[in-house]
Amino acid sequence: MSAAHLMTTLVLPWDVVALLSKGDFPRGDHEWICSVTTVVISITVGCGIYTLAFIGLNHLLLITRPTTTYNRLYTPKKMAVWLTVTWLIPFLIILVPPLSGVGELGFSEKFYLCGTKSTDQIGFRIYNSIRVFGLYPIPLVCILVCYTLIWMYLRRHAPRQNSSPIGQDETPTSNSIQMEEKINVSDVRSQSSSTTSDIVSPTQMITKTMPFVVLGFIVLLLPYAISLFISSFEPAVPYTTVILFSSICVNPIIYGIKHRDFNVVFGSILRRRWNNIPEPSSFLKNARRIRCCGGQVASVHVSNDSV
């Protein structure tokens, strides 16, 4: 999702140019710029939307299913397939209709934005309907269903977690055994990673981010879908487009503040404390090494000059 948001921000300035331009640019011979911008933005935004849906499904399986089932479904190869699907679905939705003669991408004279050209009204409405139904209702339903099931599951099993099994003469059911195994696994993981007072379970992190993810999806993404689908709301498309693009900024904030691991990393980045970043990537390790070696070389040169 971060890669998709990055690609969106890289081509987004061309949409601003199309909105503010008073000349022929980016029309005529330069209209291909608008076409490419529309394709990249639509695919990357769609990828981000489907990624949110798959994250919800991931959370559902992580909490409600046994650990063995989760580990069997989320192997590196299967994760690669999941990521491919998140890119492939919007890729097909955005590119197949224009290549089949339904809709045309370029500069929209109606909205003065890069998007669907409004010269062919029938193709304009059909293509926008395909985009709306392909990119929005399916992920929205997936997100709502997954987080509703998570909420129901946690509410149903919360009393069992608080009750003590010692001293009770009841026969444990398969569900209670499964919950005890999950609790024991989470306890072991928490004890190995942090002190008891600082433990924040994955379930707690998910429940904290859950309302913000659902609310953010509805508030930031649905207005654009509604304005594209309902003709009476078409004048609001430029404004709902701004709201849609703001989701690129809001999603990192939601996960950066509410997620424990991201919170630490984002805080270290903002304060430029690179050494405090846990589990640094290979790129960061190489950057540290280059910076360290560069500083040592500079100090050697200074000492030689002084001698």
From TrEMBL:
For this UniProt entry, which segments traverse the membrane? 32-58, 79-99, 133-154, 212-230, 236-257
Keyword annotations for this protein, in alphabetical order, are: Cell membrane, G-protein coupled receptor, Membrane, Receptor, Signal, Transducer, Transmembrane, Transmembrane helix
UniProt protein name: G-protein coupled receptor moody-like
The gene name on file is LOC110973452
| Record PROSITE patterns | G_PROTEIN_RECEP_F1_2
* Subcellular location(s) of the protein: Cell membrane
- Report membrane topology: Multi-pass membrane protein
Q: State the Pfam families in the record.
A: 7tm_1
> Nucleotidyltransferase: is it a keyword of this entry?
no
Fetch the PANTHER family from UniProt. B2 BRADYKININ RECEPTOR/ANGIOTENSIN II RECEPTOR (PTHR24228), G-PROTEIN COUPLED RECEPTORS FAMILY 1 PROFILE DOMAIN-CONTAINING PROTEIN (PTHR24228:SF72)
Q: Name one GO molecular function term.
A: G protein-coupled receptor activity
Major location category of this protein: membrane
- CDD domains listed in its UniProt record: 7tm_classA_rhodopsin-like
* Cleavable signal peptide: 1-18
Which InterPro entries does the record cross-reference, listed alphabetically? GPCR_Rhodpsn, GPCR_Rhodpsn_7TM
Record domain G-protein coupled receptors family 1 profile: where: 1-255
Which source organism? Acanthaster planci
Q: Which GO terms describe its cellular component?
A: plasma membrane
